[in-house]
Amino acid sequence: MITFLIYKLILCVVVFAISLGIAAYSTLWERKLSALLQDRVGPDRAGPFGLLQPLADGGKMFFKEEIIPNVSNRFLFILGPSLVMLTALMTGAVIPWAKDVYIGGALYSMQITDINIGVLYLFGVVSMGVYGIMIGGWASNNKYALLGAIRASSQMISYEIAMGIAVIALIITSGGTLSLREIVETQDAGFANIVWQPLGFIIFFVCALAETNRAPFDLPECEAELVGGYHTEYSSMKLGLFLFAEYINMFISSAIMSAFYFGGYNFPFSHELYDAMGLQDGSKWIALIGFLAFFTKIVIFISVFMWIRWTLPRFRYDQLMKLGWKVLLPLSLLNLAITVVVEFFRGNISF
Fold first, then answer.
1. pTM for the structure as a whole
2. Cα dist. 192→87, 189, 220, 300, 348 in Å?
3. E strands in the chain
4. How far apart are CA 251 and CA 232, in angstroms?
5. Cβ atoms of residues 166 and 203 within 8 Å
6. Average pLDDT, stretch 69-94?
7. 77/140 Cα distance (integer angstroms)
């Protein structure tokens, strides 16, 4: 029992460190990618090839002067970014990062917890993040921050509906399971879910852009209209928590899409490769190769997030809401109906 608890504690620390590390270096990769798209060099002063730039940016955030407005609600002002960061980190707990591995003769899961309602847990935690944004914008006692918070909350709530319906279709395709590990494992023996749910994936991806407040859906932070949006009055590391949480959410969203639609740690011809290498289930090498495959998919998705940001212009707010309610919601319902019909004729469901 003690060994199990120590292992889970180590896994929590590792996932926490990876989330923070990916978030930090995503800022560098975004600046490098934008420089590539705009024919610039990008950061190259802090360390070789600019590799220490995230550390310099983090240090700058810590040493900046912290300002809390006198007219703000101090407790809620501090609670807002803390809640946003907490919910961003909690989502990584149910993601299966690799296959189970034998350590010292015992089989250990490369997942912090495999609950049978993992999908509901994800949506429950993600929906809590909007409270942090709303609390931060309201507690600032600034009209621009409040408008940004209202925009963020209405945007996230609107797009969660289409995303949830798309995930219902995915659950039906995966045999009705709500466990993320089981969803990943169902893609090991056959095709990845992207084959059965192409429309569902597109809907989920667009909603993920909106949920993470990434361009072209970054209306809550629209500097041309709202100065800085819901975090206008924030400075120092409290502002850093808001910005960091966005990159962690992007990382987790990429991991969820990879797990839901692209097989997670599974990849084509993986069993042939393992057989050629003489590896058996529980091998550390299988876990490592699977993790690298999963990580590669995540990096590709993160790069696509950034590519879209530096390619598409920002929507008007009425266009954003119209897309969510009049386009994505009907499409998600259509996708659900098509999924039910297809799965019925495949013999996977019955009435």
1. 0.92
2. 28, 9, 34, 17, 16
3. 101-103, 106-108
4. 24
5. yes
6. 90
7. 6
